[in-house]
């Protein structure tokens, strides 16, 4: 049985959230992205229920402590909109299968009594296995290579078959506390000169999800898939060299290679009216440079 903790709603809700008070919003998965999204939804007055594996105390919401990889019931809930933002416990086929496939099947069973207006499922650009530096958009057929992309593609299909859904395929997410490239510099790990990289700031992931919700609420057309990525696919070597310069670190060694990976386009989201807060890596990383310097001082 899921453990449900109720908290006193904020007073009073803003008009923006009044329309969905009856059905409200269900947020399944509340890690870094989910928690930021939850706080935004609360601030604009939405009635919110969160399902999360571990305990969470957040004023103004109902929190259900539940591992979605195990069967459960939501017979008392009839949400208008659902955000599904799941994270595997490990980077293994078993962990991906458990959270994305078993989890989605259990969610569908728990909501079998109800059809939401729309479900938003956060996926990954790893469903695209293209690996020659070519451009990729929403119309590009996936060429899945790794197990993670294969399982995510299956999960997307299940989501689209089960509910009116929109999939957000995110590129590599960066932002506060995410220092993967800084660690790359510290380790002096070589980088391929032909390796393309794509990224999106975590604040834009949240912003896009809110924008998709706003479009859905006005009953405008939403495509089944959007790519969550900034304006600027860029060679990874260029990003690392720029960061090394900003942080006064030694550039990493280079390995000469042909073009690899892919370049993702965000034109569909821009045509939908979304305005990016961080259009390229320089804008995004400038806001993190001080955090990075602090992290470096610990070593």
From TrEMBL:
Membrane spanning residue stretches: none
Signal peptide boundaries: none
Pfam families: Epimerase
GO molecular function: aldehyde dehydrogenase (NAD+) activity
Domain of life, per lineage: Bacteria
GO cellular component: cytoplasm
Annotated Gene3D superfamilies: NAD(P)-binding Rossmann-like Domain (3.40.50.720)
Residues in NAD-dependent epimerase/dehydratase domain copies: 28-214
PANTHER family from the UniProt entry: NAD(P)-BINDING DOMAIN-CONTAINING PROTEIN-RELATED (PTHR48079:SF6), PROTEIN YEEZ (PTHR48079)
Protein name as catalogued: Nucleoside-diphosphate-sugar epimerase
Organism field: Agitococcus lubricus
Origin organism lineage: Bacteria, Pseudomonadati, Pseudomonadota, Gammaproteobacteria, Moraxellales
